[in-house]
Amino acid sequence: MKREISKTTPLQAVHFRNGARVLVECLEKEGVEVIFGYPGAAVLPLFDLLFDSRVRFVLTRHEQGASHAADGYARVTGKPGVCLATSGPGAVNLVTGLATAYMDSVPLVAVTGQVKTTLIGNDAFQEADVTGITRPITKHNYLVKDAREIPGVVREAFHLASSGRPGPVLIDLPVDVQQQVVEGDLFAPSPRQEKVNLSAQRGQIYRAAELIAASKRPLIIAGGGAVISGAQRLLVELADKIRCPAAVTLMGMGVFPAGHGFYLGMPGMHGTVYANRAISESDLIIAVGVRFDDRVTGRADAFAPRARIIQIDIDPSSIGKNIDVDLPITADASAALAQLLKALKKLPDTGKWLQRVCRLKKEYPLSYKEESGKIKPQSVIEEIYKATKGRAIIVTDVGQNQMWTAQWYPFERPRRLITSGGLGTMGFGLPAAMGAKIASPRDTVFLISGDGSIQMNLRELATCAAESIDIKIAVLNNGCLGMVRQWQELFYKRRYSQSLLCSPDFVMLARSYGLDGALVRRNSGVRPALKKALSSRGTFIIDFRVDSGENVMPMVPAGEAIDRMIGGMA
Description:
Blueprint (H helix, E strand, L loop, with lengths): L9 H4 L2 E3 H11 L4 E4 L6 H7 L5 E4 L3 H15 L3 E5 L3 H4 L2 H9 L4 E7 L15 H5 L5 E4 L6 H13 L5 E7 H5 L1 E3 L18 H13 L3 E5 L1 H6 L2 H11 L3 E3 L24 H9 L2 E5 L5 H4 L10 E6 L13 E4 L2 H11 L7 H13 L13 H12 L4 E4 L3 H9 L8 E2 L10 H11 L5 E6 L10 H7 L4 E6 L4 H10 L14 H7 L3 E5 L5 H10 L4 E6 L25
Parallel strand pairs: 2-3, 2-4, 4-5, 5-7, 6-7, 9-10, 9-11, 11-12, 12-13, 14-15, 14-16, 16-17, 17-19, 18-19
Antiparallel strand pairs: 1-8
Helix pairs in contact: 2-3, 2-8, 4-6, 4-19, 10-15, 12-15, 13-16, 17-18, 17-23
């Protein structure tokens, strides 16, 4: 139970504060609602002040869980998530979460404790050079050596985390700086920052309009940058105006509604056949907020061989990095699309192209073979969609569960799929789902995981119980590391080296935490279990014993062009 916060103390009256108080007050001024983390000696001054703070603190069971939970919170809200860890191993345990956020452009502010400034570099107890370790996986990081720097550092950290291409920022705070007493009002209003022009150059926009008008087979590919920019409405308007099909990457799910007639689904390694074939036949690619990851492009020199490419991205370092482009446009996606829509005077004739794409969709639909009694993982995801009426926030782990979700759960809105794309982090799902639920408590949050991924951060069930976090969990339990097993089956002569798993009884484990669950072995039990989960209060885990031999199809073998798919092709 928290103590009452004194409104006026002698210390505050004369404007004396220690560094820990300065930091906590700065976080409150930034509008931070929740911090995820774990205490330790080098952050005890901070925790002493958090005891009286209005900021909610969520004690995770591991610092990695804290960083993923902050990430899930940020992906849902669009605001920076905040995590806190002690020095040494605590700080280093955040690394996977920071790298995950960095790859997927997620705004995050991590605060880490550090040994006393006089001990830095002396191999002190629980010392680690966290600023050096995290430099490649953060937008910026700070080692604060004077408490008077804290307000400026915090303001700048939150600005950097959420501006331009978002990403994680780390503040490393030695324990003696937290204890340092400073005098005076350190919270004077920040100087007004100049407004950054996020628009594209007019010449580039006019050139893009010319390329679109001259095209016969244009195609839009939208990614995570379009989600961050809030470009859904403009993307649909562009597709409708030029009558153009649209594909979305894993990170772009929902930014172009799956129910739209021009929707092609996901391109790439486990994309739809018709999306990949359309890209290969297109004469113009309009890439919006896409960095052309290798899982999207396949063999880079064979990607979209007939197409000119327009790439719109706010990050200039992402343009042309993986794929040569004909027209680079460095700008915010929404700003550039709004300009482009105004500049489009002459429209392309895409009638035959749309007929061709329509035929591809009919010829090569996503499909799977149902077998009596066996639970197919694809059918579980379809049933989750029906049970949630497509309105849930869906969180996934990484592996087959992630790809099946992308294929079989049609997303109509952005920020409804929370998943680790660029880094592909197993264990991301459970803590990220916690952060998502705290960010949006009125929404149903459904985690779709595998028996491999769920075990990597399974301890966070204790956090769900302690914090009364209500998430629903579907474990697609096939008794193996499914994607590893799939590759070993297809490319390593079925030599299943270390890919078969022994798992706990997930339902009994959940009950040991005071939670509930259900075991489902047959098709007939899928719907009743989902109904029970959704009607229950608190976290509920469903152990679906799915077909262990099912593979994610179609698939582009590594190093092949994306039109060279196996499975799903005639």
